[in-house]
Amino acid sequence: MLIDTHCHLDASEFDSDRSEVIGRARSAGVGAFVIPAVERSGFSKVLEICGNELACHPALGIHPMYVENAVPEDLEILRERAMEVVAIGEIGLDFFVENYDRERQIYFFEAQLKIAREFDLPVLLHVRRSQDTVLASLRRIRVKGGIAHAFNGSLQQAEEFIRLGFRLGFGGAMTFERATRIRSLAETLPMASIVLETDSPDMPPSFIGKARNSPEYLPKIAEVLANLRKMTANEVAMTTTENAREVLELE
């Protein structure tokens, strides 16, 4: 069995066939799905989907690209719903987008880290061109760990995330041969530090072109990792599933 540790099945792209997508993924060997919200307005939908689909597990958070419309009251709503989730996320910092408000991103990120610490929850991190700043926040506000989603940092940064109790998420980007740094990390990092994800409907793997990404492609992503590490697909599935279960405390 595989676990998709990061898939936005609440996205509108899945509104017409969500149950069918989940069914196809389960038939392909994906046994569990972690669905992170990105803003307060999406909290209810994520919780509803996970309430209706036993294989789906909710995470709630305010994504750094959505903090422009966030208000402090959103944090109180997050705190009120914290007991219903497996993680706080998707949260983090994104210094790639133009005209980003660095201080506002940091304010909401660190406030959500404090909620995760208060409820002893792991976090799902969005980290884009912000690895060192995210790590600095994690050193100040220690949480129980979590997953650095779509990891694309250096080896030294990877080792620091691991030291702080994080697994590193690998998905569609790893399937592109030109993504040499990501593939090198996937090949050489301790296997105990790696989990798999799709980030559906975004970040499509190389073998589907620009089509909608979906958790049903996770087994093929796992095969890429298996080939990079000269392991069997079953070994990759067993290890990454155990890693995800451990860090997210999934049964």
Summarize the structure.
With 251 residues, this protein is of the alpha/beta class.
Can you describe this structure?
The protein has helices spanning 18-28, 43-52, 72-81, 102-118, 131-140, 155-163, 180-188, 218-229, 233-248; strands at 2-4, 30-36, 56-60, 87-94, 123-128, 146-149, 166-170, 194-196. By secondary structure, the chain is α/β, with parallel strands linked by helices. The protein has an 8-stranded parallel beta sheet with strand order 1-2-3-4-5-6-7-8, with helices on both faces.
Unreliable runs, pLDDT <50, ≥5 residues?
Answer: none
How many beta-strand segments?
Answer: 8
By helix and strand content, what is the structural category? alpha/beta
CA-based shape: globular
Mean pLDDT value: 98
Integer tally of domains: 1
Q: CATH superfamily name?
A: Metal-dependent hydrolases
CATH architecture verdict: Alpha-Beta Barrel
- The residue fraction in helices comes out at 40-55%
CATH topology grouping: TIM Barrel
Q: Which CATH top level class fits? A: Alpha Beta
Q: What is the radius of gyration? A: 17 Å
Strand order of the largest sheet: 1-2-3-4-5-6-7-8
What does the main sheet amount to?
8 strands, parallel
Helix count, DSSP H or I runs of 4 or more residues = 9
Strand content: 15-25%
Distance between the termini: 13 Å
Give the helices and strands as they follow along the chain: EHEHEHEHEHEHEHEHH
